[in-house]
Design goal:
heterodimer, A: about 425 residues, alpha+beta, Butyryl-CoA Dehydrogenase, subunit A, domain 2, 3 domains, 4-stranded mixed β-sheet, 4-stranded antiparallel β-sheet, B: about 400 residues, Butyryl-Coa Dehydrogenase, subunit A, domain 1, Butyryl-CoA Dehydrogenase, subunit A, domain 3, 7-stranded mixed β-sheet, two-stranded antiparallel ribbon, 9 strands, about 50% helix, globular
């Protein structure tokens, strides 16, 4: 594996693409070829639809795909988190059953971790799974689930032992969503969009063989999923493809992407749209107000500092140096930038900030910023949790005393 | 030149987001020197003197570490490095709160000479600055404390073989101990940025009267200087205009931003170790979220300000056209962070933090003097907006 050279990989993938790539194929037909050849996920093991290449060489494959404009294996949603978790903890049977259809895009996945009663404290899950015969019977509620309305399978964290301590009573399952005991409801957010679902389980069934890892080790498996989620956030961006995307397969791919992205059109607004600040100040004349100028400068300073801090973290990583504190600060910094943006957009917009939709500036974008920014300091770990992580892991400060030890049954819950 | 050499040159011209191994080693050497020669007992001893520094330590940092001329080209007796290395020095000096005429001599005076002087003047003036035998400073601001050179009132009137200076400069860092003064002054009957130029004058020349001011930050000495028909030479040419003055102040703002983030790091370290040590209600106070969240915020603040200070130095080093804007950005960011970190450090120390015996106030006062030195954050934010064309 590791003795393969870059030139060899490049030559091999080129030859394979020349013989196989055809944009008039259907998406499923092409991705089946990818799964069977291993070129769809070259960094995966050879026995599981990959070629066992190190990440640097997988990048080479990606470059060659981009050069001819070839479509990649399916990657939207949490499918790759599911795959990574199964590759690490799944049984042979599970890998055989699920991995291929993840890559071809035939199956869509979602993740059942957060609950109404456990947000920051994920391990406090109270959705239960009880073994009855050959099935685990699931009851409870999950929330903030992406794509649940069109997903086939879910990664489920559920409590299987109420007498064990909190982290030791959880187990990890793959649950099929297409069954009567699973009720998926959209969750409407304060900004009017419904990007997530809440999901109710009433005697939903999970066959015994869908337990991932061992009973009581669900938290360990969930940590794998979460680690890949964090790594995915930092992952390399897709390379731009060359050539004109003409052919049946591109139409199908575009439809797939649109379906996946449709609920998240507001995400750029959530981050505050710092890119609009100076143009807006000029177009409204707010740039003539000395107070507003100060506030804009303050915000732009913060935004630049956050951007450069992320660049420092990446540069240290590329040089192979131990990561400094700058690596743990990005999320908290982004939160400050977003809030600062909401404040300064309001200063610039003035009374028009009372309007929304097409009545409001920039076709509603400004209004959408103002009602979307509060998500940033919550989603993916609240600011307060971030501060705990920074204080305890980076500054090495002592932990708070805990009140959730001992049998989970006795721990205070919502 | 082959392609790989070209790409190396290209890489050098781009802003770098990490220090090189050599730069890290340089930093370690300075840090070792300062932990040996500038412990707080020495800072306290020197800040109580009028002179404000130890000539033996100054000689050592010049001769052994070549610090005053670190950014001065070798042809003028310097070490031939650039502003990034200069800023590594100021960051470390800020961290240790070294009492020495470094900012005045190396940052202000040397950069003024490098920006404005003729080749002959550089050859005449820089070697003595680089080897530490001559302390020098730059006088821009006057009694009104305005850092905008457009407000300069000191007048330089041509005389037989040079110029005659009249007026008052104030807030001149190390002005009381400097051997050489570089003075920003204007031609008679000019206003604004027109007619400005830099002049050199021996600090002990006739018509120059210096008075040490009582400064709130005793580790940064400042003087008022009266010029009454004092005889000076123009630095470079009158045609240079205000540009060298502005760019010298911008480079100084970058060096000061780096000094400030160094000081802020000391305060953060001090607050963190005290929070681990101090016990109240039966637990280390650092285990309370009220304290640990404050410390996490302080860390974020300090790292953000470092990014600005480092970026501005790098941008100036590669002559990015936006670098003067980034100088103002870094000065504003670091000023607020330093003072805020100092105030929070006192807060985390509680009562002991407000005492003279606790060292926190030494850095607090440096943070306060640095906040307004070279212009307040609000002044630099406005400059940033202007420089960005908003």
């Amino acid at each position: 594996m590791s003795n393969v050279s870059e030139a060899e990989v490049r030559a091999e993938v080129r030859e394979w693409l020349a013989a196989n790539w055809d944009p008039e194929m259907s998406l499923l037909e092409w991705r089946s070829k990818l799964a069977d050849s291993g070129w769809g996920m070259p960094q995966w093991p050879k026995e599981w639809y990959g070629r066992g290449l190190p990440h640097a060489l997988a990048r080479v494959v990606e470059e060659e795909f981009a050069n001819v404009g070839a479509v990649r294996a399916a990657s939207s949603g949490v499918r790759l988190l599911a795959a990574a978790t199964l590759l690490e903890h799944g049984s042979e049977e599970q890998k055989k059953k699920f991995l291929r259809r993840i890559l071809t895009g035939e199956d869509t996945w979602c993740q059942f971790f957060s609950e109404p009663g456990s947000g920051s404290d994920l391990a406090g899950a109270t959705t239960r799974a009880d073994l009855k015969g050959d099935f685990w019977i699931v009851n409870g509620q999950k929330v903030w689930t992406t794509s649940a309305h069109h997903a086939d399978h879910g990664l489920l964290l559920a409590r299987t032992d109420w007498d064990a301590p909190k982290h030791e009573g959880l187990s990890y399952f793959v649950i099929n969503l297409k069954q009567p005991g699973v009720d998926v409801q959209p969750l409407k957010q304060m900004n009017g969009h419904a990007s997530f679902n809440q999901v109710f389980f009433t005697d939903a069934k999970v066959p015994k063989e869908n337990l991932v890892g061992r009973v009581g080790e669900g938290w360990k498996v969930a940590i794998t999923t979460l680690a890949h989620e964090r790594r995915g956030v930092e992952a390399m961006s897709a390379l731009p493809r060359s050539g004109s995307p003409k052919g049946r397969i591109y139409l199908e791919e575009r439809a797939e992407t649109q379906k996946a992205n449709q609920p998240y059109t507001w995400y750029p607004q959530r981050a505050g749209r710092v890119d609009l600040i100076i143009d807006r100040a000029k177009e409204t004349g707010a740039n003539k107000d000395p107070y507003v100028r100060q506030e804009i400068a303050r915000l732009m300073t913060l935004a630049k500092c956050a951007e450069w801090t992320a660049r420092r973290a990446r540069a240290a990583q590329q040089q192979g140096r131990p990561q400094g504190p700058e690596g743990s600060l990005g999320k908290l910094a982004a939160s400050h930038v977003a809030r600062g943006c909401a404040r300064v957009h309001t200063l610039i917009t003035g009374t028009d900030a009372m309007l929304t939709g097409r009545e409001s500036p920039r076709e509603g974008i400004i209004a959408e910023i103002l009602v979307s920014v509060p998500a940033v300091s919550i989603a993916g770990g609240t600011d307060e949790i971030q501060r705990n992580i920074i204080a305890e892991r980076v500054l090495d400060l002592p932990k708070e005393p805990r009140f959730d030890t001992g049998p989970f049954r006795n721990v205070r819950k919502n | 030149m082959n392609t790989s050499e070209e790409s190396k040159v290209e890489a050098r011209r781009r802003v770098q987001f990490a220090f090189t191994d050599e730069q890290e080693q340089f930093r370690s050497a300075i840090r070792r020197f300062l932990s040996d020669r500038s412990p707080t007992t020495e800072v306290r001893r020197l800040m109580a003197t009028d002179e404000g520094y130890d000539p033996a330590v100054w000689r050592q940092m010049s001769e052994e570490l070549a610090l005053p001329g670190i950014h001065v080209p070798e042809q003028y007796g310097g070490a031939g490095f650039g502003i990034v290395e200069l800023c590594i020095v100021t960051e470390e000096l800020g961290r240790a709160l070294l009492c020495a005429p470094y900012f005045s001599t190396a940052v202000l005076a040397a950069n003024a000479i490098l920006s404005a002087a003729t080749d002959a003047q550089k050859s005449a003036l820089l070697p003595a600055i680089a080897n530490g035998t001559r302390v020098a400073t730059l006088a821009v601001t006057e009694s009104d404390g305005n850092w905008d050179p457009a407000g300069i009132k000191v007048v330089a009137t041509p005389d037989s073989d040079g110029y005659c200076l009249d007026g008052v400069k104030s807030f001149v860092v190390d002005g009381h101990v400097a051997d050489l003064l570089i003075v920003a002054a204007r031609a008679p009957k000019t206003t604004g940025l027109a007619g400005l130029a830099l002049f050199t004058i021996d600090a002990n020349a006739a018509g120059v009267e210096r008075r040490l001011l009582e400064s709130m930050d005793p580790t940064r000495k400042i003087a008022r200087i009266d010029f009454r028909g004092a005889h000076a030479q123009v630095l470079g040419s009158l045609d240079n205009g205000a540009e060298p003055i502005l760019r010298t102040l911008d480079r100084a703002a970058i060096a000061l931003a780096n000094e400030m983030v160094g000081g802020a790091q000391t305060l953060l370290d001090s607050a963190v170790s005290y929070a681990k040590l101090r016990v109240q209600f039966g637990r280390a106070i650092g285990s309370f979220q009220a304290i640990k969240h404050k410390l996490a915020d302080m860390l974020l603040d300090v790292e953000l300000a470092k990014s600005a200070a480092y970026y501005a130095a790098q941008a100036s080093a590669v002559d990015d056209p936006e670098w003067p804007a980034f100088a103002s950005l870094a000065k504003a960011a670091a000023s607020e962070t330093y003072l805020h970190t100092a105030a929070e450090c006192i807060q985390i120390h509680g009562g002991i933090g407000f005492t003279w015996d606790n060292d926190t106030h030494l850095w607090f006062k440096r943070a306060k003097s640095s906040e307004v030195f070279l212009g307040q954050p609000s002044y630099h934010r406005e400059l940033l907006m202007q420089r960005w064309g908003v």
